[in-house]
Every structure is written in C-alpha cells, then in structure tokens.
Task: inverse folding
C-alpha cells in the first residue's frame, strides 16, 4: 500500500541543497522545454505532454543513504482541477502528489516531500495519472539525506 504523502505548498524556494533544473540533462521531460512563461529558473521549464504517464524525471546524487526533503517547483494555470502524479524514487512509488492550480502559468509554487534516497545516484520521477499530464515543472531541489 502506498501512503499519501503529506505535501506542503510553499511560496519560498525550499528545501536548500542541490538544485536540478528540468531543462538540463540528465533530467528528462516527456514534452517540450519551454521559456514562454515568466518567473522560471534557469533557461526554461518542462512543459509535459498532456497524457497519463508523460513524466518528468531527475537523476540526483546523494552523499549518504537516508531520508531527504525534495521540493518540486511548478506552475499550474489550469483552473479545472489539480494534476495528480505518482512520486517514484528508484523505481518504487513512494506516494502521490496533487499539483493544484496556482492561478496562472506564471505563478510558481513549491511542493515538498520527504523521500528515501540511496547513497550515490537516484532517480526521482513525477508520473502523471490523468490525461491532463503534469503542471509545468521548473526544477527539483534536494536536501541532504539523513539517517
């Protein structure tokens, strides 16, 4: 059974640590890398294909195994409904994320969660569960893993 993660919407960029931009390899975006909405970080953001399973994936490095706080910066200008996604770490679904509307595609917000990481390389995937796909994804921040 997968637990529903307790995710917190924040207005500040959190957590501090390593930042992984959605438009920079080895990140993967099943969609396009766009730069037409103001307020994003880096050189663009992932505008995922509107389809279930059209994921955004990040390869992250952790100095140690343990639990780490991750923050997903996103914008969802759709007003009809939240855009849910499975949160998958190293191939295992660890919870779900509900990316609610931020009111505009230029209004960015951050969702945080605590996830298990291995020492070394890890994959973190946001896998949308509805035909609406993901919101626009700007980056993933990863805090240090603690035992």
Result:
């Amino acid at each position: 059974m997968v637990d529903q993660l307790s995710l917190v919407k924040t207005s500040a960029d959190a957590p501090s640590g390593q930042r992984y931009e959605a438009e920079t390899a080895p990140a993967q975006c099943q969609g396009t890398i766009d730069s037409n909405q103001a307020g994003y970080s880096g050189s663009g953001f992932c505008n995922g294909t509107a389809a279930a399973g059209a994921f955004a994936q990040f390869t992250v490095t952790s100095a140690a195994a343990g639990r780490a706080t991750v923050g997903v910066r996103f914008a969802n200008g759709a007003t009809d409904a939240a855009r849910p996604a499975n949160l998958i770490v190293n191939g295992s679904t660890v919870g779900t994320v509900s990316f609610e509307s931020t009111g505009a595609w230029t209004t960015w917000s951050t969702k945080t969660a605590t996830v298990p990481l291995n020492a070394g390389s890890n994959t973190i995937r946001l896998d949308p569960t509805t035909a609406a796909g993901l919101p626009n994804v700007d980056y993933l921040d990863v805090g240090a893993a603690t035992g």
Observations:
- The chain has a mean pLDDT of 90.
- The two ends are 23 Å apart (CA to CA).
